[in-house]
Amino acid sequence: MSINYYNNNAENFINDTFYLSMSELMNEFLTYVGNTGTILDLGCGSGRDALEFQKRGYKVFAVDGSKEMIAHTSKFLSDKAICSTFSDYETNIKFHGIWALASLLHVPEADMITILRKYRDLLAEDGVFFMSFKNRKNNYEKDGRCFTCYTKEKLLSVLSEVGSLDVIKFIDTVDIREGREDEKWISAIVKASDR
Ligand SMILES: C[S@@+](CC[C@H](N)C(=O)[O-])C[C@H]1O[C@@H](n2cnc3c(N)ncnc32)[C@H](O)[C@@H]1O
């Protein structure tokens, strides 16, 4: 259901987000990915971060369920921008990094464990998985989008239920969009346990 929002509000969403800089979180993530490798931008939106990873020399694939977001992202990623839902996406690639910034928050809570296990299993050996969520106690719906929210404690609990994951770190931030500074975010960087 959330995907319709991004198709119907594509121009505004791209204008509001394409020029934001996520370099602080990205630099932290890339510390663990290393200097080279293949990155999946999962729920890429405008493609802002996929483009930045590409500029920094990584091989990048971007997945989003919104055809409008993929139309924008494919301008610089061409056929490596793939229109697919999180649950439908299929690949044989193993990723050194999976970057899910503010995207898995649209996965209904009942499906979260299945989705997290699926992407954990797409990590290369020593690959790392970044995910971020609104740091709130309660899930909610707004403008046709559902938001699954986590406190650090709840996220830790879901990650241990997913299993075979080691948490590298949690990162607390506030929203960088003007006027949204009261919105707190919780991010996690995790890796698959030794397999
Ligand atoms: C809040 S936006 C974040 C976009 C981008 N990561 C960013 O930080 O600007 C969430 C994105 O997830 C995508 N999305 C939501 N639900 C999805 C699903 N089930 N499968 C694939 N993509 C989905 C939306 O189309 C949207 O582009």
Question: What is the fold's blueprint, element by element?
Answer:
Blueprint: H1 2-8, H2 10-17, H3 23-33, E1 38-42, H4 48-55, E2 59-64, H5 67-77, E3 81-83, E4 95-100, H6 109-120, E5 123-134, E6 140-142, E7 145-147, H7 152-162, E8 165-174, E9 184-192
Parallel strand pairs: 1-2, 1-4, 2-3, 4-5
Antiparallel strand pairs: 5-9, 6-7, 8-9
Helix pairs in contact: 6-7
S-adenosylmethionine is lined by residues 2-3, 6, 17, 43-46, 48, 64-66, 69, 85-86, 101-103, 106.
Sketch the topology as an H/E string, one letter per element: HHHEHEHEEHEEEHEE
Shape: globular
The proportion of strand residues reads 25-35%
Radius of gyration: 15 Å
Ligands present: S-adenosylmethionine
For the record, give the distance between the C-alpha atoms at the N and C termini, rounded to a whole number: 35 Å
Low-confidence stretches: none
How many DSSP helices?
7
Q: For the largest beta sheet, what order do the strands appear in spatially?
A: 3-2-1-4-5-9-8
CATH superfamily: Vaccinia Virus protein VP39
Q: Approximately how much helix is present in the residues?
A: 25-40%
Looking at the structure, the CATH topology is Rossmann fold
